[in-house]
Design a protein that fits this description.
Oligomer: single chain
Structural class: alpha/beta
Number of strands: 11
Shape: flat
Number of domains: 3
Strand content: 5-15%
Number of helices: 15
Largest sheet: 7 strands, mixed
Helix content: 40-55%
Length: 486
């Protein structure tokens, strides 16, 4: 076996000297989600068309052609999909009880119908919708959405049972609990788990039920990378708190979901959710927030935001470039190497806010009343104007609109030696703005605190959180409240 890691090895060193496990979206999962969205859209249109046919064939009802009422299914379907996204109804990796999904569909479809009426009333005041058609559309959409989702679920779970779109799982623990978990996974193939192997604990006797024993706990990061593990299930309820924390730490070094068979202990994690494995309770310590189709969604948002922002800001950016040239000699842009996703360097673009010879004596932190700044540079930094060219980095894919702020390699090398989990910031793309920045951690502030905020953002990402951060950044920028931006 390839030489394994020990618990005293530095993961950051491992991260730099070994190839990163590629973060690739599973095509099958994308297909599952895409087809489910299409089915929901189709269901709403079918519901309204079915309702219209029923009314049109009723001699007691006078109703116009269906084309007169197209705004109803159009708006309703879009709102329904948006609400389903917000309520995580497109994250169906494990089987969900049909009754549970039905009640969710009823509730959310009702909200979608009410929102549809409200939006059409405000946006199209002259639009007249048939009340009976609206009622039938609501009722039929619940029925058709539920039926199509049930069919889709069966197809998806059958595909997962045959190894299509399943998750590769590493089980930590080979005792009694480990055997019970293996039996549940083996007897429930539609859950979409493919066990790649088992990791034992110390001298614990291994009863792996025929699955390969891949190594010891210290080997977990290497095993995850080599076997392309998607999730790690820890079945060691008898372990001490410190042992569990150490195992979780080893797993967190890679981009995997982590689930723990629970015992009565205090979880040292930011968020805990309770799920099950064929009836056995499992606590989700960390279910990777930004992976799969979410990466595509975030990238799409980055492209749209950066492209639109560059178009809108281009006259202002041209004026800024002219003022920079008029104030001092030297280039308009300042291009600097920073560390981004997977600790890979990239060239970050900024408007030059300092004298051309500002780093003649080597790199250094900016300070309050820094004499190297130009007069225009002081104003630009106060209102984040110097950051505008980074929209080009976002459009090119080197950065994201929201994410941990990138640091220079020389500082990354320093921080990784002294700040725990500092390199975990590089699990996602660097951002123009971030959770730490909108909470006042800019400029000469604690790197330790910034790291905590960055890690919280990575593990709790959502599209709504990105919009919240962007909105807060805009408000703070317009207010000129970036006092620490030296």
């Amino acid at each position: 076996m390839q030489q394994s890691l020990t618990e005293t090895d530095s993961y950051d060193e491992y991260n730099i000297h070994h190839a990163q496990r590629p973060v690739l979206m599973k095509r099958t999962q994308l297909i599952f989600v895409t087809t489910l969205i299409l089915l929901d859209l189709i269901a709403v249109w079918l519901a309204y068309y079915g309702g219209w046919l029923l009314l049109e064939r009723n001699p007691k009802v006078v109703i116009g052609p269906f084309t007169e009422f197209w705004p109803l299914p159009a708006v309703h379907s879009i709102i329904l999909v948006a609400i389903f996204f917000a309520r995580r109804l497109y994250q169906r990796r494990r089987p969900l009880g049909q009754q549970d999904e039905f009640f969710k569909v009823v509730l959310l479809d009702t909200f979608a119908t009410l929102f549809t009426v409200a939006i059409l009333t405000l946006a199209l005041p002259d639009f007249t919708y048939h009340r009976s058609l609206l009622a039938l559309g609501w009722l039929f959409s619940i029925v058709i959405v539920t039926i199509l989702r049930a069919i889709h679920a069966q197809v998806q779970w059958q595909a997962q049972a045959h190894g299509i779109g399943d998750d590769r799982v590493l089980l930590v623990g080979a005792g009694e609990i480990g055997q019970m978990l293996l039996q549940k996974i083996t007897h429930n193939p539609k859950m979409g788990y493919q066990v790649v192997g088992v990791v034992g604990k110390g001298d614990q006797p291994v009863d792996n039920l025929g699955f390969p024993v891949l190594g010891s706990i210290a080997d977990i990061p290497w095993i995850i990378e080599k076997h392309q593990v998607d999730e790690v299930i820890i079945g060691l309820p008898e372990s001490s708190h410190q042992e569990l924390v150490n195992i979780i730490s080893l797993c967190e070094r890679e981009k995997v979901g982590i689930r723990v068979f629970p015992d009565v202990f205090q979880i040292m994690a930011s968020e805990v959710s309770i799920g099950d494995l064929g009836g056995l309770p499992l606590l989700t310590i960390r279910d990777v927030a930004l992976q799969g189709w979410k990466l595509t969604l975030k990238r799409g948002m980055d492209i749209i935001f950066s492209a639109v922002s560059l178009i809108i800001a281009s006259p202002f950016m041209m004026l800024t470039a002219l003022l920079i040239k008029l104030e001092s000699p030297g280039p308009v842009f300042y291009v600097q190497e920073r560390m981004g996703l997977d600790a890979r360097p990239f060239k970050m673009i900024k408007f030059r806010s300092m004298r051309p010879d500002a780093e003649a004596d080597g790199p250094g932190w900016t300070t309050e009343n820094d004499p190297r700044r130009t007069k225009l540079g002081t104003l630009m930094r106060r209102f984040n104007i110097d950051e505008l060219p980074q929209l080009i980095n976002v459009l090119m894919g080197d950065m994201s609109m929201v994410g941990p702020r990138p640091e220079r390699p020389v500082y990354v090398e320093q921080f990784r030696q002294s700040i725990p989990r500092y390199m975990d910031r590089h699990r996602e793309k660097a951002g123009i703005t971030g959770w730490a920045q909108v909470n006042g951690l800019r400029g000469d502030t604690s790197i330790v605190e910034r790291t905590k905020y960055d890690l919280w953002y990575i593990e709790n990402w959502s599209l709504a959180l990105d919009f919240k951060i962007i909105l807060r950044t805009i408000v703070q920028t317009l207010a000129g409240s970036n006092q620490n931006a030296y």
